[in-house]
Specification:
The protein has about 180 residues and is α+β, with helices and mostly antiparallel strands. Helix content is about 45%, strand content about 20%. The strands form 2 sheets. It has a 4-stranded antiparallel beta sheet, with no helix packed on it. Strands 1-2 form a two-stranded antiparallel ribbon. Helix 2 crosses helix 3 and helix 2 crosses helix 4.
């Protein structure tokens, strides 16, 4: 499978797939937080249930219209009873893109530092990597320097290799040393 970065459109499709059409409030949280928001910020916005601003509702409506026109989602019912669902084309598109894999990680006695310099033309892959590092509880030191106490899963390394970004990443392990975390 050719792994690529998920766009916001793909995130909408994937959320509909996972939520069976019930993920609208989560999608509103994504749009409310804006481009580049961390997963943690989106989850907070979703949990807080803050009413979206009119501008974001318009963005959401436009996105849904585009997805329907492209045949990636369909709508059933009317008004409050309406539901959005993924079409077979939408499912196929999601399978072609790189999902935000949740890798199973093991704790490490060592400190693992990940430093990367992924070119701008691979911005999507760079954002994918940052989201993955957040999901495995790494801490951002700088935008391209992350630190954690987790072993990097082989599957994650394989995905980075397939995405052709591994050559732009340095992974350092500090054994027996100490670094002030926090």
């Amino acid at each position: 499978m050719n792994k690529k970065h998920l766009t916001k459109k793909d995130t909408v499709l994937e959320t509909l797939l996972e939520a069976g059409g019930g993920g609208i409030s989560f999608l509103e949280a994504i749009l409310r937080c804006g481009y580049g928001a961390s997963i943690q910020k989106i989850m907070r916005a979703h949990q807080d249930g803050i009413a979206p601003q009119v501008k974001n509702i318009e963005r959401f409506s436009i996105m849904i219209s585009k997805l329907k026109k492209e045949g990636l989602i369909s709508k059933s019912g009317r008004g409050l009873q309406s539901r959005l669902k993924l079409t077979s084309s939408g499912r196929k598109r999601i399978k072609e893109k790189a999902p935000l894999n949740i890798y199973e990680t093991e704790d490490s006695d060592s400190i693992v530092i990940i430093i990367f310099d992924i070119p701008e033309k691979k911005r999507g892959s760079r954002n994918w990597l940052r989201n993955i590092l957040i999901s495995i509880n790494f801490t951002m030191i700088q935008k391209s320097v992350w630190m954690g106490r987790k072993k990097i899963p082989k599957e994650m390394l394989d995905d980075m290799r397939k995405m052709r970004i591994l050559e732009h990443i340095e992974i350092l392990t500090i054994k027996g040393g100490t670094i002030e975390e926090g």
